[in-house]
Amino acid sequence: LTGLPVAGASLLDEPTAAAEAMSLCRRSSKSTSQRFYIDSGVLPQTIAVVRTRAKAVGVSVEVSDLSAGPPGDCFGVLVQYPRIDGAVVDYSNLATRAHDAGALVVAATDLLALTLLRPPGEWGADVAVGSSQRFGVPMWFGGPHAGFMSVRDSLARSLPGRLVGVSVDSAGRPGYRLALQTREQ
């Protein structure tokens, strides 16, 4: 549904997944900026959680209308797709401008809406986050909702929840394995 090939789950909820996505963008972006932009159409609870996480790690968060693209130097941008007012915005130009500046694009999205809308991965999002609650997942499975994050292949190794294991092969040599795992497991 997101148009992105790798996904992880159990990120508590959409706002927490968005905060994790901001951290992923900081680790993976080519930009040296410490600024993260959030579109004014993002849910207020998501903005609040991202701001709280950002403050703890020294990231400057700015909230503004990003319809014309990021207003300045940044390592990432977060948009809501569809926006809080229900508007469906084509963020392709924003994604192109952000990528040209070395920034990554995160789409906080509604999986049910994506059954009808163009997937974020197709218009240029590098990361998609959200909640699967819209599919009726009961509240008691892993937190308030089952949050998810999906990414481009190039960001798979930066997904939160990785496990690196060491084993021994048949010749006695150490072997390393990287696997994705849900956060609470």
What characteristics describe this protein?
about 180 residues; seven-stranded mixed sheet; two-stranded antiparallel ribbon; alpha/beta; 9 strands
Task: Sum this structure up briefly.
With 185 residues, the protein is α/β, with parallel strands linked by helices. It is built from 4 helices and 9 strands.
What does this structure look like?
Helix 4 links the parallel strand 5 and strand 6 (127-131). The protein has four helices and nine strands, in the order βαβαββαβαββββ. The model has no long low-confidence stretch (mean pLDDT 88). The strands form two sheets. The protein has a seven-stranded mixed beta sheet with strand order 1-7-6-5-4-2-3. It has a two-stranded antiparallel sheet with strand order 8-9. The protein has helices spanning 14-28, 44-57, 92-100, 120-123; strands spanning 6-9, 35-39, 60-64, 76-81, 104-110, 127-131, 147-151, 162-168, 174-180. It is globular. The two termini are 25 Å apart. 23% of the residues lie in helices and 28% in strands. By secondary structure, it is of the alpha/beta class.
